[in-house]
Amino acid sequence: MQNLLWNYNPLSLAYQGLVSVGQYLSVSQYLSSNDYSNIIKKPNRDNISKYSLIIFDVDGVLRIDSKVIPLADITFNKIKEMEIPICIITNSSRKSPKLIKQELTDMGYEIDSQIDLISASSLVVLEICNILKNNTIPINKQSKNKKNSLPHIFNIGIIGEANLLFYITRKITKKYTNCCFYWIKDNMAFRNISHNIDYFIIGSMVIDNDIQLYIDRAAQWFNCNTNASIIISSPDRFSDEKIKEMDYYQSTPLLDIIKTKGVKEYGRFEIPSDQKILGKPHCSDYIDKICERYNIDISSIKENERLPILMVGDNLDTDIAFAKKINCDSCLVLSGVTKLTDIQEDNSLINNIDYVIPDISYLCM
Q1: Count of CB atoms within 10 A of residue 167's CB?
Q2: What are phi and psi of 55, to 5 degrees?
Q3: Are strands 248-249 and 205-206 parallel, antiparallel or unpaired?
Q4: What is the pLDDT along the chain (365 residues), one digit of tens a residue?
Q5: How far apart are the first and last CA of the chain?
Q6: Is the alpha carbon torsion for 246, 251, 253, 259 positive or negative?
Q7: Residue 290 burial (CB count, 10 A)
Q8: Nearest to 55 by CA among 355, 335, 351, 319
Q9: Are 210 and 239 contacting, i.e. CB atoms less than 8 angstroms apart?
């Protein structure tokens, strides 16, 4: 299968009718482009075969919105046929891992039970489970007289969409009963709990006619719970131009908007300072579990030696930074957030990045 894989390049795929000539031209133009001649660093077959695991980002790597990036599905499936283990890690908190897997499957990606999909929402679940298991009450809310205190019931406020709420509550309440969840969009819950939140979970929110109401509520919630802790599902940031095109606020920009509203409304207003950010690159704490899941023996790796893992992503601040944190090889694709023009303006951006390719089809050329 490996020899067969490396016969799959855009031209042969076009001849075989597996992709359109238009798709071939859109990809192959970079092979002869002077703009790319000093930038592209493409792996060969031996490079790819040496990895014990390839980690893919989703948005900008496998798809853009609801559309497959040309040739990405074919490339992904061919790498799977090579029997190189694959893991998918996305900073999306809008949907459950199961739903994202189904969407990718519907797009043509062959995703089975051997391929794990880790989302920002699943990292939130792991974090909350650790808190409940270890009974981790925020320090500034702990009772001074622990001997006489009753078992603590954790009140958790969720600022996000229904998908995040249902996924978190369904997963956690199966294991733990020492928690209560309150949703920013639940009118009754919001009125009933305002001063006793232990943890806030910040997800993403759709920009609709009611978004300002929920931003106002969130500012009020924070103002009444200055001793709470915050769990931020994703560190992703976008340019002002990109945000204008989007129909939702990601968690980090959403938190900034809430803070701006709070200052305007209350004057002296501060977001609770005890914060933990999840998602790439901050999920490097879980690399041991990932290696264990994919039978990568960390103990056999020498000091300063890299993990036999390739991280493939489009974002320098999340995907490539994650690769550096876990000390593995990195592959930057220019089909998403990072563009050719970014690198042309500052060539130092790709310093210490192992591979730079227009899209993941170049993994198989």
Answers
A1: 23
A2: -105, 125
A3: antiparallel
A4: 333 333 445 545 554 454 444 544 554 555 455 556 678 888 877 788 899 999 999 999 999 988 999 889 999 999 999 899 999 999 999 889 999 999 999 999 999 999 999 999 999 999 999 999 888 777 666 654 455 556 788 999 999 999 999 999 999 999 998 899 999 999 877 776 677 899 999 999 999 999 999 999 999 999 989 889 999 999 887 666 666 677 889 999 999 999 999 999 998 888 888 999 999 999 888 899 999 999 999 888 888 899 999 999 999 999 999 999 999 999 999 999 998 889 988 889 999 999 999 899 888 76
A5: 15
A6: positive
A7: 20
A8: 319
A9: no
Task: Return the beta strands (E) in 53-140 as ranges.
Answer: 53-56, 63-64, 67-68, 86-90, 116-119
* DSSP per-residue codes, 29-60: GGGS-HHHHTT-B---HHHHHT-SEEEE-SBT
- Beta-sheet strands, E only, within the chain: 53-56, 63-64, 67-68, 86-90, 116-119, 154-159, 179-183, 199-202, 205-206, 229-232, 248-249, 275-277, 307-313, 328-333, 355-357
Strand pairing class (116-119; 63-64): unpaired
Q: Are 203 and 233 in contact (CB under 8 A)?
A: yes
List, in order of start, the domains of the chain with CATH numbers.
2-91+285-364 (3.40.50.1000), 122-140+152-277 (3.40.50)
Upper half-sphere CA count for residue 7 (Cβ side, 13 Å): 6
Torsion sign across C-alpha atoms 168, 169, 171, 173: positive
Which pTM does this prediction carry?
0.85
Give CA–CA dist 320/151, Å, rounded: 42
Residue with tokens 């990568």: 296
Q: How far apart are CA 276 and CA 15, in angstroms?
A: 51
Instruction: Name the nearest CA neighbour of 39 among 363, 276, 242, 341.
Output: 341
Identity of the amino acid at 96? S
